[in-house]
Amino acid sequence: xxxxxxxxxxxxxxxxxxxxxxxxxxxxxxxxxxxxxxxxxxxxxxxxxxxxxxxxxxxxxxxxxxxxxxxxxxxxxxxxxxxxxxxxxxxxxxxxxxxxxxxxxxxxxxxxxxxxxxxxxxxxxxxxxxxxxxxxxxxxxxxxxxxxxxxxxxxxxxxxxxxxxxxxxxxxxxxxxxxxxxxxxxxxxxxxxxxxxxxxxxxxxxxxxxxxxxxxxxxxxxxxxxxxxxxxxxxxxxxxxxxxxxxxxxxxxxxxxxxxxxxxxxxxxxxxxxxxxxxx
Length: 280
Fold this sequence. Notes:
Layout: H1 2-10, H2 12-31, H3 33-79, E1 85-89, E2 102-106, E3 108-118, E4 124-129, E5 142-145, E6 148-156, E7 161-168, E8 173-178, E9 182-187, E10 195-202, E11 212-215, E12 227-235, E13 242-249, E14 258-264, H4 267-278
Antiparallel strand pairs: 1-2, 3-4, 3-14, 4-7, 5-6, 5-14, 6-7, 8-9, 8-11, 9-10, 10-13, 11-12, 12-13
Helix pairs in contact: 2-3
């Protein structure tokens, strides 16, 4: 204790000077913007690398949560697309009347899954997803990704499902090319996973490079106006009255991760109607 008192007495003037200096710096920092900015900048130069290193380390743990949130947001947006509904109006009431009644009936709903296996270089390519019948997955559900059409559910087990890719010799998708608004069919020929062919378009139809190709909506599997690709090249054949149109697929099948499955809420009823024609 005596040593401490002696130290303070001996160095009183030095300690007082340091305390006053600190007080002055605090007053200057709080009263002048520029010194405050300079000190703040100097502090960031020192602490910035530490904050960046901490962020780089922790951000990987947040990716899964962020991706999940994005997928759920996409599902909400997909469910609200106009092509998912049939809109009817009461024709007995004037359209301009305040009493006019418009009813929207949902036809398509959506689920999502993650791709756990995928092939793109075989004659008959397929995918496997991490959801099955226990999650509501059924056969013949359309499979999409944010870029466009992926394929159709082929087989379902309790926890998994297999999908016939668009890159499959048996794949055949009803499509329309715009702006010609002409109906055709999409097929894939073995070889290039980036291109497919649009068939059954008459040669007299004006088709140009860059025209967009969408699902037609004439199949109960796919909603209408889902992007398939764009016209890359068209070929004529003297032995046929139809064009063979090469299209650039909108989906990069080598980078599939999350896919969206389309459920037709009236599939059972439509299947029943189709079976009547098959039995005739």
